Amino acid sequence: MRRYIDFYLASMKISILEQIQYSVANYFYMIGMVTEPVIYLVVWTTIAKQQGGMAGGYTAGAFAAYYIIWTLVRNMNIVFTPYGWEWRIREGRLSMELMRPIHPIHGDVAFFAGWKFVVILLWLPIAAILSWIFKPTFEISWMEVIVFFLAIWGAYLIRTMLLSLLGMITFWTTRVSAIFELYFGLELILSGRLVPMTLMPAWVQNLSNFLPFKWTFFFPIEALVGNMTNAQLWSGIGMQVLWIAFGILILNFIWNFAIKQYSAVGG
Amino acid sequence: MTATISVSNLSKHYKVPEREGGMKAAVASLFNRKYRTVKAVDDVSFSIEPGEVVGFLGPNGAGKTTTLKVLSGLLHPTSGSVTVLGFEPYKRPHAYLRQVALVMGNRNQLSWDLPAIDSFELQRAIYGIPVSEFKKTRDDFIDLLELKDLVNKPIRNLSLGERMKMEIVGALLHRPKVLFLDEPTIGLDVTMQRRIRTFIKEYNQRWGVTVLLTSHYMADVEALCKRVIVIHHGRTLFDGELSSLVTQFSSFKTLGVTLPNPEVDLSQYGEVLTRDGARVTLRVSKARTSQVTANLLSDLQVDDLTVEDTPIDDVIDSVFTSNEETK
Amino acid sequence: MNPIKLALTYLRIGVLNEMQYRINFFIQLLQSFISVATGLIGLSLVFGQVTTLAGWSRSELLAVMGVHLLMGGVIRSLIQPNMERLMDDVRNGTLDFALTKPADAQTLVSVREFRFWQLVDVIVGIVIISLAFYELKGTLGFLQLLGFLAALIMGGVMLYCVWLMVTSISFWVIRVQEISNLFEGLYAAGRWPVGIYPDWLRTGLTFLVPVAFAVTVPAEALTNRLSGTSLLFALGMTVLFVFLARGLWLLGLSNYSGASS
Which residue of B has its CA nearest to A262? Predict the structure, then answer.
């Protein structure tokens, strides 16, 4: 255990040092990313105003709050992508990673976790500017803040599992961009990235309850900007933990096959 | 004493899909793939004692890298058994990985944007090296390779050779007992190759580490390895002392003759290889060498005469080509 | 060498190259399908709440979506690949190969790459536009079509100019990859008529990254909203952009040759 903590700290330190060197690049990237929620926000604010102030139970201020927190959650959702898996296998980097006495996925989780600290720091001014422009309305309790802080890391872990699973397809075949894109499309609709889930038709909402996506996006945002009871907040965290546990199980299971495949055909 | 590495009847076969050109074949291959078996390594056996430095020779695609990958645990053998330090590598137990290192000349592990010293810290954490031991090893290596002024510079600002030195330091910080080196000096200039060679030698001698090395540069092999294993088409052609490789495979010697009169035709004495002014080189079969030398000296006025073994590169070359012909 | 001939030659090579990877056609088709599907879902969510958005009906917004897709296809097949290659060339110092060819350098760097399969988006865009037209039961007059095509071409030229200007910056600032990322993000704003955006953003989308001219104006032409004056304004802007881009390119180029020699 102590060894893992040591490894995580060292890895995160490396990635923070690396990413600080690229803070300008990181900033451009983040600003580019901001346009997406701003577009959604503008569209839904227009609708809310047209309808006399509210759309689907959200005021313009509530939409603003949702989509501003969205920007942070989106950044927390950035993990090692399936394209990254394709690259690490093709370039033989995985071979080097497999030679270490530590699971490569630990490396991914630690590296991106370190990056997140830089991202959160860079995000603060962006959030301030967006708030100044779009005037969000927040009603935040301490409990919500605590749960939100946990939930964004839960979201990070769940999405890491999902995309690692997806990425592992590249052990068997390389023409997978179509599958990836299909996945990203589904996720867009079912996670709360496009619109708050409560604006979706009832059947979509029901469906999303049985899927991991909304725990990576809608839940963390809603935990902070929505009005959930304490029981709802903590059961949400419970759901995230369940999905993480389930993810670890599946990941381990598939990993065994993937590595067998890899050591049969070579990197 | 038991062998550090023992390999018996190792085979590694790949199934590769056969593809014909054209759209129709491409679609058909989605449903009914035809496979062809490639025998990358075919029934190879050898064993290596602790502290040995063994060179692994063979042309591209001979199966060198495949064998190294099997030994380091990245590939699962198709058949045969492999043990290294008493472990079965393909299971990749952490206790095993902690005692070996694989260095590939064209792969880098250290962070491109950071000084090596920071990346070394990560290696320490990965291998769980005790801090005091880590610092000592690191500083030793830095001294040995004269890297003191470079460890604080980002890797991207270093030259190729300096980068390779850093990579080697990073890969050896956990003091592996077995070292697999795949083309460690590829693309480096001669001085840098020599530095790295000296370091590997030093590392081997100081800690009694077992080293298995592949290289295109015969100089690497000559400097480091007493013993070589030559493989070709996945099979072992030779396993033994480097010097006996030359005696076994080269039945010729090279005679260098300098004559005051360059016009003389020497083709009756042996095969003329080069003719550079007064200097002529001849290829003569080993059995006839003394006879020919005596004849030359008695028949002609000779200013200078040398007898040399065929250069190792040419020997290797002839091993592969002769094998090609008999196949 | 005649620039048009040059462009056609590269175009032919590009097509031949891409024909080898026919599977990409299906991947591209699927990707277009996904982006259309998510677009339609977005539209249906909006129009589950309201009947018009900032004065645009569902079918009219469908037309906007079609134009956005079409123009996006043009950017990704013709403009972006060339500009990204140019950035790479500047960074790796391999631009010299292009500069030593006996042709206008700007033309050359703008026609070298061509992603044939990305044109699938153009086709899909046209299909969506036709569908929107069918829903609107509109008739496309000759003048209207002419206005649309003119607006489309001018919009494309302006986007090319902006890309070229951004890329020219790479002569001074090496890391500009992220700028192209930013550009993609801003282009996504064109999915909706720029009229819905707040003033500051609309200004940006009109004058900095002319998404307004590239998508909204052609869509306005299709839906009978376009006046002759705005078309004329677009023409003026196009000329301005062309001159600005050419100027910046030449400046960057002289800076490049100054630095490397």
Answer: B75
Helix H or strand E encompassing B82: strand B79-84
Confidence of residue B287 (pLDDT cuts 50, 70, 90): confident
> What residues in B contact C23, CB-CB < 8 Å?
26
Number of domains in chain A: 1
Residue B75 is encoded by which pair of tokens? 């590939």
Neighboring chain B residues of A103 at a CB cutoff of 8 Å:
none
For residue range A42-99, list pLDDT tens digits in order.
999 999 999 988 998 899 999 999 999 999 999 999 999 999 999 999 888 899 999 9
Token couple for A222: 């809603």
Domain boundaries, chain C: 3-260
Cβ partners under 8 Å of residue B35, min gap 6: B15, B16, B17, B18
Q: How high is the ipTM of this complex?
A: 0.87
- Name the domain count of chain B: 2
- The answer to whether B255 and B306 are in contact (CB under 8 A) is yes
Tell me, yes or no, if C182 comes closer than 8 A to chain A by beta carbon.
yes
Mutation target to probe the A interface, by most A beta carbons within 10 A, among C36, C46, C203 is C46
Cα distance between residue A185 and residue A199, in whole Å: 18
Contacts of B among chains (3+ CB pairs under 8 A) = A, C
From chain C residues 88-127, the ones with a CB under 8 A of any chain A CB are: none
Alpha-carbon torsion angle B198, B200, B205, B210, nearest 10:
-150
Flag whether residue C175 sits within 8 Å of chain B, measured between CB atoms.
no
C169 min Cα distance to partner chain B (Å) = 24
DSSP 3-state assignment of B273?
A: strand
Residue-level pLDDT at B323: 62
B261 assigned to some structural domain: yes
Asked if B116 and B110 count as a contact pair (C-beta separation under 8 A), the reply is yes
Same domain, residue pair B193 and B303: no
Taking only the tens place, the pLDDT of each residue in C61-100 is: 999 999 999 999 999 999 999 998 888 888 777 888 778 8
Q: Partners of B106 in the beta sheet? A: none
User: What pLDDT, on the 0 to 100 scale, is given for residue B27?
Assistant: 60
The SS3 assignment for B1 reads: coil
Q: Domain span at residue A47?
A: 2-265
Q: Which chains touch A (3 or more CB pairs under 8 A)?
A: B, C
- What is B176-188 written as a DSSP string? -SEEEEESTTTT-
Residue A88 backbone zone (phi > 0: left; psi -120 to 50: alpha; other: beta): alpha
> Which residue type sits at B48?
I
Residue B117 belongs to some domain of the structure? yes
Cβ pair B113:A13 closer than 8 A: no
Domain containing B200 equals 5-9+43-246
Q: State both tokens at B315.
A: 């020997």
Give the β-pairing of B5-18 and B34-48.
antiparallel
**pLDDT value of position A259:** 92
- One-letter identity of residue A194: L
For residues C222 and C131, is the Cβ–Cβ distance under 8 A?
Answer: no
Instruction: Report how far residue A81's alpha carbon sits from residue A159's, in angstroms, rounded to the nearest whole number.
Output: 10
Q: Which residues contact A101 (CB under 8 A, 6 or more apart)?
A: B94, B95, B97, B98, B126, B127, B128
pTM of the model: 0.87
- C50 in contact with A, Cβ within 8 Å: yes
Q: Across chain C, what does the average pLDDT equal?
A: 87
What residue of C is the nearest CA neighbor of A25?
C178
A185 with C197: Cβ contact below 8 A: no
Q: Searching chain A, which residue's CA lies closest to the CA of residue C28?
A: A178
For A138-178, the DSSP string reads ----HHHHHHHHHHHHHHHHHHHHHHHHHHGGGGT-S--HH
Do B206 and B104 fall into the same domain? yes
Asked if B255 and B284 count as a contact pair (C-beta separation under 8 A), the reply is yes
Closest residue by Cα to residue A26 from A112, A133, A131: A112
